[in-house]
UniProtKB/TrEMBL annotation:
<keyword id="KW-0689">Ribosomal protein</keyword>
<dbReference type="GO" id="GO:0006412">
    <property type="term" value="P:translation"/>
</dbReference>
<dbReference type="GO" id="GO:1990904">
    <property type="term" value="C:ribonucleoprotein complex"/>
</dbReference>
<dbReference type="GO" id="GO:0005840">
    <property type="term" value="C:ribosome"/>
</dbReference>
<keyword id="KW-0699">rRNA-binding</keyword>
<protein>
    <recommendedName>
        <fullName>Large ribosomal subunit protein eL24</fullName>
    </recommendedName>
</protein>
<dbReference type="GO" id="GO:0019843">
    <property type="term" value="F:rRNA binding"/>
</dbReference>
<dbReference type="InterPro" id="IPR056366">
    <property type="entry name" value="Ribosomal_eL24"/>
</dbReference>
<dbReference type="Pfam" id="PF01246">
    <property type="entry name" value="Ribosomal_L24e"/>
</dbReference>
<dbReference type="GO" id="GO:0003735">
    <property type="term" value="F:structural constituent of ribosome"/>
</dbReference>
<dbReference type="GO" id="GO:0008270">
    <property type="term" value="F:zinc ion binding"/>
</dbReference>
<keyword id="KW-0862">Zinc</keyword>
<comment type="subunit">
    <text>Part of the 50S ribosomal subunit. Forms a cluster with proteins L3 and L14.</text>
</comment>
<feature type="domain" description="TRASH">
    <location>
        <begin position="7"/>
        <end position="45"/>
    </location>
</feature>
<feature type="binding site">
    <location>
        <position position="33"/>
    </location>
    <ligand>
        <name>Zn(2+)</name>
    </ligand>
</feature>
<keyword id="KW-0863">Zinc-finger</keyword>
<feature type="binding site">
    <location>
        <position position="7"/>
    </location>
    <ligand>
        <name>Zn(2+)</name>
    </ligand>
</feature>
Length: 63
């Protein structure tokens, strides 16, 4: 049985065998669906709730 994960930045579902895994020095695991999400979170330091193309933005705005 394959396990599905959600992207740490945008919240999209990651299919098995795809995506990127980033392990921080403290041992926490970040999973990304694309390099776009990885760059926005780690290098550009964007906040998912303020980035319009993410599911987390839509969820934050509907509250």
């Amino acid at each position: 049985m394959a396990k599905y994960y959600d992207c740490s930045f945008c919240g999209n579902r990651i299919e098995p065998g795809t995506g990127l895994v980033y392990v921080k020095n403290d041992g926490s695991i970040l999973r990304f669906c694309s390099s776009k999400c990885k760059k926005n979170m780690l290098f550009l330091k964007h906040i998912p709730q303020k980035t319009k193309w993410t599911k987390k933005y839509v969820k934050a705005k509907t509250r």
